[in-house]
């Protein structure tokens, strides 16, 4: 939201000299033993709050002596450091093996990659064999994290709360990966508008970061995923520069976009507990689109549901294409900002938007 913009610009200029570019993706912790207790504090005297197992990956929060804290279902959980490894995944978010060799090299064992399921449905199994029980089925377009296993045609996969194994050929063949795409997105044109930019930093977060940076982070993840699914994506800005609002929607008109998405984060420093997501549309024709995307976002992220509604936003006003403005959470809320910074939550938001778009396109 662009409230008190002039105050924020002044505040922003003051902050520019004091803050660095945010480290957008938190570090990750991979569990290396089965049935490891998660505790509420850094020591065996703290009460257990759950269990984690080998291969599961969590966002790293902090370390105290021999204990590491992780984002455990949006709570802070502590585990013994000796049973886990901390990975610097920062680039891995978009990293996938560029070819078979990369995926199969011994040196990559333990490295966590992220990719998108390129085939209709994959069985996730409890063991690296077709004899293993089916833990769950993962549909096309879902994002998984995986690590390569030495001397095996199987990879170790984490998808949401599930872990298991799938054959490496599913993600290993670059040609297949790029050729097999989700037909629903093929030929679709999506224009993504990372809100604000440049001198207009948007809202300032509880931790002192800018809405414009968070909007860009989410937009880039969304763009990369949509492109992998076969969509053509245009961004209204690729850099940290301010572009006025009406040309942003005009870009969607120009490219005859199937959908225009303006990405924002909310902020109410006066009510730091406010949280959750809103979705706005301008034309009543776009109400169905708003419903699909909003409800999917709430489903995948479990964010507080602030509803979807019509809103007369300038960035939507000049658009003649179906368009939404997404307020993806309150960066003035400390907990919500921590979520937004995390790799897993960004993935969930992207999944939510993509599920919603898939439902919308398949209804037309
Ligand atoms: Zn905004």
UniProtKB/TrEMBL annotation:
<feature type="region of interest" description="Disordered">
    <location>
        <begin position="89"/>
        <end position="108"/>
    </location>
</feature>
<keyword id="KW-0378">Hydrolase</keyword>
<dbReference type="Pfam" id="PF08239">
    <property type="entry name" value="SH3_3"/>
</dbReference>
<dbReference type="Pfam" id="PF01520">
    <property type="entry name" value="Amidase_3"/>
</dbReference>
<dbReference type="GO" id="GO:0009253">
    <property type="term" value="P:peptidoglycan catabolic process"/>
</dbReference>
<dbReference type="InterPro" id="IPR002508">
    <property type="entry name" value="MurNAc-LAA_cat"/>
</dbReference>
<keyword id="KW-0961">Cell wall biogenesis/degradation</keyword>
<dbReference type="InterPro" id="IPR050695">
    <property type="entry name" value="N-acetylmuramoyl_amidase_3"/>
</dbReference>
<dbReference type="GO" id="GO:0008745">
    <property type="term" value="F:N-acetylmuramoyl-L-alanine amidase activity"/>
</dbReference>
<dbReference type="GO" id="GO:0030288">
    <property type="term" value="C:outer membrane-bounded periplasmic space"/>
</dbReference>
<dbReference type="GO" id="GO:0071555">
    <property type="term" value="P:cell wall organization"/>
</dbReference>
<dbReference type="InterPro" id="IPR003646">
    <property type="entry name" value="SH3-like_bac-type"/>
</dbReference>
<feature type="domain" description="SH3b">
    <location>
        <begin position="109"/>
        <end position="174"/>
    </location>
</feature>
<feature type="domain" description="SH3b">
    <location>
        <begin position="19"/>
        <end position="88"/>
    </location>
</feature>
<protein>
    <submittedName>
        <fullName>N-acetylmuramoyl-L-alanine amidase</fullName>
        <ecNumber>3.5.1.28</ecNumber>
    </submittedName>
</protein>
């Amino acid at each position: 939201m662009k409230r008190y913009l002039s105050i924020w610009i002044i505040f922003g200029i003051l902050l520019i000299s004091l803050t660095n570019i945010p480290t957008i993706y938190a570090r990750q912790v991979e569990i290396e033993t089965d049935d490891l207790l998660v505790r509420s504090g850094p020591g065996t005297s703290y009460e257990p709050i759950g269990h984690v197992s080998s291969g599961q990956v969590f966002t790293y929060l902090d370390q105290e002596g021999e204990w590491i804290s992780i984002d455990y279902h949006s709570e802070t959980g502590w585990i013994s450091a000796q049973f886990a490894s901390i990975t610097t995944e920062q680039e891995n978010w978009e990293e996938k093996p560029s070819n078979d060799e990369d995926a199969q090299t011994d040196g990559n064992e333990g490295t966590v990659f992220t990719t998108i399921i390129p085939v209709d449905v994959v069985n996730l199994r409890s063991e690296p064999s077709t004899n293993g029980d089916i833990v769950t089925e993962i549909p096309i377009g879902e994002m998984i994290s995986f690590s390569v296993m030495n001397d095996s045609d199987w990879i170790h996969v984490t998808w949401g709360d599930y872990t298991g194994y799938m054959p490496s050929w599913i993600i290993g063949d670059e040609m297949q990966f790029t050729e097999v795409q989700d037909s629903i997105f093929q030929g679709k044109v999506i224009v993504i508008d990372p809100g604000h930019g440049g001198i207009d930093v948007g809202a300032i977060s509880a931790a002192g970061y800018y809405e414009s940076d968070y909007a860009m982070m989410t937009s880039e993840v969304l763009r990369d995923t949509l492109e992998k699914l076969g969509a053509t994506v245009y961004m209204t800005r690729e850099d940290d520069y301010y572009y006025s609002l009406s040309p942003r929607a005009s870009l969607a008109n120009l490219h005859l976009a199937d959908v225009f998405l303006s990405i924002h984060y909310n902020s109410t420093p006066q009510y730091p507990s406010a949280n959750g997501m809103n979705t706005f549309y301008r034309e009543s024709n776009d109400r169905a689109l708003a419903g699909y995307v909003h409800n999917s976002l709430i489903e995948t992220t479990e964010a507080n549901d602030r509803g979807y509604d019509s809103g007369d936003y300038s960035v939507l006003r000049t658009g003649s294409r179906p368009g939404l403005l997404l307020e993806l959470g309150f960066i003035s809320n400390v907990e919500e900002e921590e979520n937004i910074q995390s790799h897993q939550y960004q993935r969930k938001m992207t999944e939510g938007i993509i599920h919603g778009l898939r439902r919308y396109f398949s209804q037309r």
